[in-house]
Amino acid sequence: MPSQRSPPPLEFAHGTTTLSFAFQGGIIAAVDSRASLGSFVGSKTTQKVLPVSSHILGTMAGGAADCQHWIRALKKEALLHELTEDGRRMSVARASRILANHLYALRGYDLSVGTMIMGYDDHGINSKDDHDTRSSTPYIYYADNTGLRIQGDIFAVGSGSTFALGILDTEENRYNLSVDEAVALGIKAIRHATFRDAYSGGYINVFLITPKDGWRKVYTEDIARNPEIWKALQTEINENS
């Protein structure tokens, strides 16, 4: 009988562009929607922002299945926390720590996860103290499959992250932007990353998180169907030629 040979491992390249930053009006999360399978586009409508609670979001970069599984597992734990704590939401720090601990315990299993957990805590929301600022403090944490967990006020993750950061860093007064200006900055950063990174593309999706209202999607755009994008790209090509 012929020897049974195991199939060769499938090496799929992972690519995306996700970013988040805090400003005076809340937290902006902006992502593309392309899922890559090596040299192929697996999907152009991947949802790379997943809810954890009413005031916490998580982003996906890496393996789509790994990211979706662990962010949804975190959402389950956040819902259980609200049920057992009289409706009080899980803090962003605790949510990011739980995720990082799970990933650290499985660091030898070849997971591919790079996620940002962001949002607001609910300290003081139901209190009578209007001067309690703890509930209005934005929190953004980065966690990945090594168990690494870092807090910051701006992150970009994925193969197009360097291009996105280059755009974000051009805005020195980023924290004092209005909501419309912050949304426009997130759109611009993702758009430029999709021009320069072959693994990023599809739709631009932008979410806003505020301490009072929680998260909501504020913008979505199919890059391939926007004539302004093609006009700007053609102008850029002509200028460089």
UniProtKB/TrEMBL annotation:
Q: Where does this protein reside within or beyond the cell?
A: Cytoplasm; Nucleus
Would I find Protease among this entry's keywords? yes
The active site of this protein is located at T16 (nucleophile)
Catalysed reaction equations from the record: Cleavage of peptide bonds with very broad specificity
Keywords, sorted A to Z: Cytoplasm, Hydrolase, Nucleus, Protease, Proteasome, Threonine protease, Zymogen
- One example GO MF annotation: threonine-type endopeptidase activity
**One BP annotation, GO:** proteolysis involved in protein catabolic process
Q: One GO cellular component from the entry?
A: proteasome core complex
InterPro entries the UniProt entry points to: Ntn_hydrolases_N, Pept_T1A_subB, Proteasome_bsu_CS, Proteasome_sua/b, Proteasome_suB-type
Q: What is its main location?
A: cytoplasm
Q: What does this protein do?
A: Component of the proteasome, a multicatalytic proteinase complex which is characterized by its ability to cleave peptides with Arg, Phe, Tyr, Leu, and Glu adjacent to the leaving group at neutral or slightly basic pH. The proteasome has an ATP-dependent proteolytic activity.
Oligomer and partners? Component of the proteasome complex.
**Which family does this protein fall into?**
Belongs to the peptidase T1B family.
Q: What is this protein called?
A: Proteasome subunit beta
Source organism of the structure: Fragilariopsis cylindrus CCMP1102
Organismal lineage: Eukaryota, Sar, Stramenopiles, Ochrophyta, Bacillariophyta
